[in-house]
Amino acid sequence: MQSNFCNLSHGHMRHITGQIRFDTGRSRTLVWTKESINSSVRRPPLETVGSGREHRVTISRGFFGHHDPRAADLPPGQHLTHGFPVLTAGPTQLIPTERWSFTITPEIGEPKRWSWDEMTALPSEEINVDIHCVTRWTKLGTRWRGVALDTFFEDVETDDDYAMVHSYGGYTANLPLEDLLGGRAWIAYEFEGEPLHAEHGGPARLLVPHLYFWKSAKWVKGITMQRSDEPGFWESFGYHTYGDPWREQRYADD
User: Fold this and answer.
1) What pLDDT score was predicted for residue 74?
2) Shortest CA distance to 57 belongs to which of 107, 131, 125, 6?
3) Mean pLDDT across 126-147
């Protein structure tokens, strides 16, 4: 199972003891065993990820940030970052564009599928948005290019109100359908004028900037429509089912 971008919080890290190795260079590797994790932790950090007794998370520089007093109007509990931090648990998915496809599966009816060439031939938009990670960093003024979900859903008939997003690697995230429509969500394939790098979810990821960034699933491969709101990967481990950063909906009881 490949977990999504930026899903290990500072609160989780306080409970990891004695098993941390910092690599030199631009990234840090946290290494822990199940025995090193406080058994009372309500939301254990990524215990389902990895094999055997040892688990690893690689974190890029900038993941651990500090509040910038110049940053105005950030969501509560967030600090400003000028980089683009990455947290990867498990291998980065490397999907050639000739193998990539995106499918929307309604509860009733035929799935709709787009190849890479079909997707990139659709009308695209430049998207300038702020992004907010549940691990408490915010990056302002990011620039993406992608296709609005509204465009894909023009060819889909559904009466369902909820969606489950699926990624290459097995990751899932649940969202209400209304949060994917109305110019609020995109399949993004460029970042800052360049093809989206694999570590950030390339060749294409979901972009839902008004919610915490774990909802913007990397390596997106499809959406399945649902009548009820079922939890995705992180939601099954105690993260909030919706994830509004302005209401600080990090965990299920927030």
Assistant:
1) 95
2) 6
3) 96
